[in-house]
Structure formats: C-alpha cells, structure tokens
Design goal:
Shape: elongated
Number of helices: 5
Helix content: 55-70%
Strand order of the largest sheet: 1-2
Order of helices and strands: HHHEEHH
Strand content: under 5%
Structural class: mainly alpha
Number of strands: 2
Radius of gyration: 19 Å
C-alpha cells in the first residue's frame, strides 16, 4: 500500500521516515567529525562538500515529506497510548520537523554567507544568499551546532520511545514504521 490508512503507514511515508532518520545520523556524525579536520587533511574540502550536498538533498526530501504528510491521512494513535503519550508524540514530531528545517536553513546561511553557491554533488548548484546580516556565518554556525545537538538528542529520545513501546509495552508503534497494521 503506497498511502497511509487509519491503521498503518504506507510505503511512501515509511521510506521518507527511514531516509530522513538515517540521513540525520549520518549528517550529524559527518558534521561532528569534519569540524576537527585540519587544512592538511585529505578530507578538509571533501567532507564539507558531502555534508552540504547531502544537506541540500535532505532539505528537499523533508519538504517532500511535509507535503506528503499534508495531503495524506495520519494513522490513528495506537489504542493503548494514553492521551499524554499521544500529545507528547505530536509535540516531539513537530519539534523534529522544526529542528530539521532550522538546522538546514542555518547550514545554508553558513555555506552561502560569502555569496558562493552550494554545488550539490556537481549535479546542480543552489544559489548563495550572500551575507544577509553582519557575522552571518559565525552566528549561523553557532545556531547550526546547537540545533544539531538538540536534533540528535530529540532523535535519540524518539528512538528510545519507539524501543520502549516495542520491548516494554509490546505494542505495534515501532512495527507500524515497518508497514504493519495497528490492528
């Protein structure tokens, strides 16, 4: 089933979820590693090129995912989830989306503060914004770092909640992200 139903996620939602989830952890790991590279490292230019290219594509995927979510139904919550769990899940998902967009926008502001475009795997270039405010690269860099830490922390909490539902509550929360029905 391509689209969501009231009891399960469709394959498109599942692909979007796992593509974004895996990419976030890859991007965090790459970003964490590359900030300590020295000018003489063979990865000094290549790692940021990968990070920026994946970041631009990830932004496009997140926008498509949000568009898909807007025009698709959302499965009903698992019946055993309390009202508090349902509200916390909605809040966590909203924060994850906001953090994703904020991290990527701050990355764009860092990368294009000098007016240069971002070459995306040499397939196309995303035009640069230039310096929109004084100290843009440095200010956006601080925001990018702390937003990324917050995003990865919330992602780990999200993962822990899914594992709690699977192993402790023994409900279908995690299984639904693999295409299983709530019923």
């Amino acid at each position: 089933m391509l689209t969501n139903s009231l009891s399960r996620y469709g394959i498109i939602s599942i692909i979007f979820h796992w593509l974004v989830a895996v990419s976030v952890f890859i991007m965090f790991t790459l970003g964490y590693w590359m900030v300590d590279l020295t000018y003489y490292s063979s990865w000094y230019r290549l790692a940021p090129w990968w990070h920026k290219s994946i970041g631009v594509l990830l932004f496009a995927v997140v926008m498509l995912r949000l568009l898909w979510k807007t025009f698709n139904i959302t499965p009903l919550p698992v019946s055993t989830h309390s009202l508090l769990e349902q509200r916390l899940a909605r809040l966590a998902h909203l924060l994850l989306y906001l953090l994703l967009v904020a991290v990527m926008l701050s990355g764009y502001l860092i990368s294009t503060a000098d007016g240069r475009a971002i070459a995306v795997f040499d397939w196309f270039s995303l035009p640069g914004a230039g310096e929109l405010f004084t100290g843009q690269a440095d200010i956006a860099g601080v925001f990018h770092q702390y937003l990324a830490y917050t995003l990865i922390g919330l992602s780990l909490l999200h993962t822990a909640a899914a594992l709690k539902h699977h192993f402790i509550d023994k409900d279908v929360t995690l299984k639904r992200m693999f295409g299983h029905s709530a019923r």
